[in-house]
Amino acid sequence: MVQGSDRGQDSPGAPAGEVYDWYRRGLDLLSSGSPAAAIHVLEHAAAAEPSSRSVREALARAQYGAKRYAEAAANFRMIVEADPAEDYALFGLGLALTRIGEVAEAVEHLALACAMRPENKHYATALRHARARRG
Predict the structure, then answer these.
(1) pTM
(2) DSSP, residue by residue, 11-68
(3) Where are the domains of the chain?
(4) What tens digit of pLDDT does each residue of 54-81 get?
(5) Which CATH class is domain 69-135?
(6) In whole angstroms, how far apart are CA 26 and each of 1, 54, 95, 109?
(7) Of 9, 11, 84, 94, which sees the most CB atoms within 10 A?
(8) Per residue in 78-101, pLDDT tens?
(9) Residue 88: which H helix or E strand, with range?
């Protein structure tokens, strides 16, 4: 989870507040339909707390929402590498990889997410669509 650290506060162009404030502001922007604005704030949070999976996930979601799929995939991949049992990150990685045309790899990640959470209909739907694209 994101701590109340103020690391990175003095970096040029950093938003006001502490890392947790940036994280919350990024989530608010994301939920209000402003992924590009969320990216700006969340990139500062990620630079200050590079090992925070919460920040990485929020940043990846914002990047995906802004159609920056390769960047989203990279951040989801960081989470998966840190915790291979993180089903949502596997799902996000699979979605982003599908969007950039790496469908075979996407299917692998989506299948793992489905195996971990078979009751999740979103995971199953994404897997079906990726498999259909793979042909």
Answers:
(1) 0.88
(2) STTPPSS-HHHHHHHHHHHHHTT-HHHHHHHHHHHHHHSTT-HHHHHHHHHHHHHTT-
(3) 1-67, 69-135
(4) 999 999 999 999 999 999 999 999 999 9
(5) mainly alpha
(6) 15, 11, 21, 26
(7) 94
(8) 999 999 999 999 999 999 999 999
(9) helix 87-99
